[in-house]
Amino acid sequence: MKFTSLSTRLGLLVVLAMPAGQLLQAQPSKPSHYSVTDLGTLPGGDFSQATNVSDNRLVTGLSSVADGTQHALFWWGPFRIDIGAPGVNSGAFGINARGQASVQSEVADKDPNNENFCAYGTGRKCLAFRWQQGVMTLLPTLGGNNATVGNINSLGEIPGLAETNMRDQECPSGVSVNGVGPLLLDYRGVIWGPGPNDVRELHPLPGDTVSMAILMNDNGQAVGGSGRCGNTLPPPIAVAPHAVLWERDGTVVDLGNLGGSVNTSILGVGNIGLAINNPGEVTGAAAIPDGTHFHAFLWTKQAGKMRDLGTLPGDVDSAGTAINDRGQVVGGSTDPDGNLRAYVWQDGVMSDLNSLVVSGSQLHLLLAFGINSSGEIAGFGVNSHGDVRAFLATPVNGGDDKARTPVALPENLRTILEKGASSGRLRITLPRAK
Predict the structure, then answer these.
(1) Whose CA is closest to 353, among 325, 320, 330, 382?
(2) C-alpha dist (Å) from residue 416 to 11, 55, 98, 411
(3) What would the DSSP string read from start to end of 364-398?
(4) Read out DSSP for 105-150?
(5) Across the chain, which distance is largest between two alpha carbons, in Å?
(6) Residue 26 three-state SS
(7) 413 near 76, Cβ under 8 Å?
(8) 139 to each of 135, 195, 246, 379, how far by Cα in Å?
(9) How would you write the pLDDT of the chain (434 residues) with one tens digit per residue?
(10) What count of other Cβ atoms lies within 10 Å of the Cβ of residue 279?
């Protein structure tokens, strides 16, 4: 399958002990129930995934189109806005309340080293972009040919990874288990922005040669992985020997592990920080001692180590893919046969998100990728026909009232929608009738 078509062991790796103090008091005492919306696809498409959701319900992701390629898009209410990107395949992986988005695109140009950084198997360059007010701006590499993005914070800063010009004989010479490769060059975690030409390198731990940043908070802290080119896999389903956090000043912190190490021969087995909230709590996935499975974890500065969050009953693998400032965590959990279920964690309990859905949903929820401050959850599921669809799950029946109040579209996006709809420059569609 192509890049973000996640299957078997747990989606894109592209939590949590109880938060202390006022965060603990602010948490809901029991899981909410959810109303689920199938966000649909772009015209002609048969597949979509949601990757993130902002506090004003802008949802990013990707959708296939009639020619089989994938386009970056965002959803707002009933609208689907195809923002595309220069090239062939693209996806949006974060959006903030100001309407700025982080986008990855496989462009038409061939990689001079025939690398496969986007995992599409085409040998084309993989590049990072910032989308703002209808304009796609290319983000720089560190001297290499490829880069990819994580989320985007409220300041417009984007974490990710970019190739250097340093050749490394340890890099995989063939296609790795997650579809990436061959690779010839080292890569480093970076933060782009907030200025249009700003790029800051995030160094790996001492002794390591590569790093990658997956997500950052509004305080300038970023999380990801550190390792060597031969024992680290960049996204999708990224793993490394070390899960790490970078402080605002660039200091790198080893988050520890759950007793296991990276195993690049098995999809998802390794250590990686996947999300950090503004209080500085980190979730992700870490290998367990058997060397063949991985569990979601929570790391806090107070504890100074990971807490194993386990799996849903009967399952063997899990990952924490997002955490909001209230300490709610979402992700996915898989059984021994690779069957995937989305979960929400709070108050020390991991719950199958499907068990909390009110009647009327046509989707089985496979993986939750994002959760906003209102507890709204974005991810993907599968319908009765076997089609993968992006979803937005909204708390109801005692959930946070904020999740149900009207929200405003950023003025810059409202202007784009109005102009685009009248000029035909934007592809805006309404949901299909079920």
Answers:
(1) 330
(2) 33, 20, 13, 9
(3) EEEEEEEE-TT--EEEEEE-TTS-EEEEEEEEESS
(4) EEEEEEPTT---SSSSSS-EEEEEEEEETTEEEEPP-BEEEEEEE-
(5) 58
(6) helix
(7) yes
(8) 13, 11, 20, 26
(9) 333 333 333 343 332 222 333 333 344 456 789 999 999 999 999 999 999 999 999 999 999 999 999 999 999 988 899 987 677 899 999 999 989 999 999 999 999 999 999 999 999 999 999 999 889 999 999 999 999 999 999 999 999 999 999 999 999 999 999 999 999 999 999 999 998 789 999 999 999 999 999 999 999 999 999 999 999 999 999 999 999 999 999 999 999 999 999 999 999 999 999 999 999 999 999 999 999 999 999 999 999 999 999 999 999 999 999 999 999 999 999 999 999 999 999 999 999 999 999 977 889 999 999 999 999 999 999 999 999 999 999 999 654 433 334 455 566 655 554 444 433 334 445 444 33
(10) 18
Q: Give the C-alpha distances (Å, rounded to integers) separating 282 from 50, 59, 117, 244, 354.
A: 21, 22, 26, 10, 24
Calpha distance 350→31 (Å, rounded): 9
| Residue indicated by tokens 């990728």 | 369
Residue 113, judged by CB atoms within 10 A of its CB (0-12, 13-18, 19+), counts as middle
Task: Enumerate the domain spans of the chain.
Answer: 18-81+311-420, 83-273
The torsion region of residue 388 among left (phi > 0), alpha (psi -120 to 50) and beta comes to beta
Q: Would the pTM of this model clear 0.90, i.e. be above it?
A: no
Q: Which two tokens stand for residue 119?
A: 């995992």
